[in-house]
Amino acid sequence: MNASIITLWTIFYRFFLFGCVSFGGPAAHIGYYRKQFVERDRWLDEESFARMVALSQFLPGPGSSQVCAAIGYRKAGAVGATASFLGFTLPSFLLMYALARFSAELMDLPFTLTLIHGLKLLAVVVVADAVWGMAQRFCTNRLQWGLACFSAIVLLAWPSLWIQCVVLLIAAAIASRYPQGGAQPVEGTLLRWPLILFGLLLLLALWPGAGPMRQSFADFFQTGALVFGGGHVVLPLLQETVGEAMSADRFLTGYAAAQAMPGPVFTLAAFLGVELHPQSPLLGATVATLAIFLPGILLMLGFYHAWEALASRPRIGAAAAGINAAVVGLLLSALYQPVFISAVRDGADMGLVILGLYVLRGRQWPILGLIGLMLVASVGRFYLG
Questions:
Q1: Distance (Å, whole) CA 12 – CA 10
Q2: Distance linking the first and last C-alpha atoms of the chain
């Protein structure tokens, strides 16, 4: 078998596994990526990973999916980005599609909720590990520790997307005043084809046209191009998109289910696509999902090389280091809200989190082993009361 095909299959398979178990939102997803692709597989170094995360904070679209596509692109170009995106998104897409087509009753079963709760505890462990590991790498002096703490304190007190952007800009401005030499310059320019494709699709979305499927593409693409932040931010835009075509109860059922699913919350678009196009449910789900994800991913790929080149300049590199430190604080705030407070309900849950941290960092268990531990422990608690 061709080596490139093996590489693409590896990318798809790794991200598909993450898509099946990655509960906890973007912060948890980034933690999974870091543990697997930076520490274990060494597909990229810590600095490159941090720059991906930092860039995703300034672009519209789902941040963890943008980082996912960037990792795939770094490994195997545009086809690698496609493989990583499809692998990570496919599990939650299929679950949301099945939920819209059939029934939400399975999600309400006590045993199902128990499994989901175990995976939420897994997310606490993974995010805590990511915060610790990134802090060790990116908070190496008093300034960087101060920026990380400043970021965490502000975002814990005022958890807002706009506050997050302001905090990152302040961190960049402060850190840029203390440039350090020694960085090797990196060549890189804007990658044109993703930006050209983004522009053409945006024109198509804005151009008046007839047909319900065309309108769905336009609505969801515009939503994906406008939303900065995670699933909570996209909620009001999607509510406006579906308008009176769907009852508020049905919309909120889909949104609640998306919160309980692994993978990106933006796959709520699959649920909405089925509801909006009952005569062509699979096509409707596919069009809506691709339309909402494409803007952010195309922009990520378009700016990726230029961002890498900018970050190699002393002052810009210092600013990027400040952003990296602030991202540590951002992840720390996300560890508390929503990851920790939505998962840890009592002392026994906290005990499982501590056990998970021990086997992950102290015993170097792989992620799949940790998943099994959390699921078995949660099921055992379920049956033992």
A1: 6
A2: 51
Q: How many domains does the chain have?
A: 1
Phi, psi of 228 (to 5 degrees): -110, 120
Determine, yes or no, domain membership for 107: yes
**The token pair that represents 244 in the structure block:** 């009176």
> 217 in a domain, yes or no?
no
Q: Is residue 60 part of a domain?
A: yes
Count Cα atoms within 13 angstroms, Cβ side, for 360.
Answer: 29
**pTM, two decimal places:** 0.74
> Which range marks the domain in which residue 50 is found?
3-188+300-384
226 falls within a domain: no
Strand partners, 228: 61
Q: In sequence order, what are the residues at sequence separation of 6 or more whose Cβ sits closer than 8 angstroms to the Cβ of residue 122?
A: 21, 23, 24, 356, 370, 371, 374
**Tens digits of residue pLDDT in 267-305:** 989 999 998 998 999 999 999 999 999 999 999 999 998
Confirm if 289 and 270 have CB atoms less than 8 A apart: yes
Ordered alpha helix ranges (H), 22-109: 26-33, 46-57, 63-101
DSSP labels, 288-318:
HHHHHHHHHHHHHHHHHHHHHHHHTSHHHHH
